[in-house]
């Protein structure tokens, strides 16, 4: 997948995670994109650790959203 495709998917995942996570999220579009991409990476490695994905297999869209939500919750806890 091209880098632009990764950024678009990251933006969609980040936006969904922002809508799912309760409370205010005063972060910009670039941070939302980064949260989506990092959430996908978290979901991929977490899924491999739990045996849900094989090595080299990326996480699915729902797994990426879950990873981004986990990242947003951690960021909110650290931000306090």
Architecture overview:
With 80 residues, the protein is mainly α. The chain has one domain (3-79). It contains three helices and no strands. Helix 2 packs across helix 3.
Q: Could you provide a short overview of the structure?
A:
This protein has one domain (3-79).
Shape by Cα distribution: globular
Number of strands: 0
So how many helices?
Answer: 3
> How helix-rich are the residues, as a percent range?
over 70%
Tell me the domain tally. 1
SSE order? HHH
Instruction: Estimate the mean pLDDT confidence.
Output: 82
Biggest sheet, in brief? none
Radius of gyration equals: 12 Å
Are there runs of 5+ residues with pLDDT below 50, and where? none
Q: What distance lies between the first and last C-alpha atoms, to the nearest angstrom?
A: 37 Å
Q: How much beta, percentage-wise?
A: under 5%
Structural class: mainly alpha
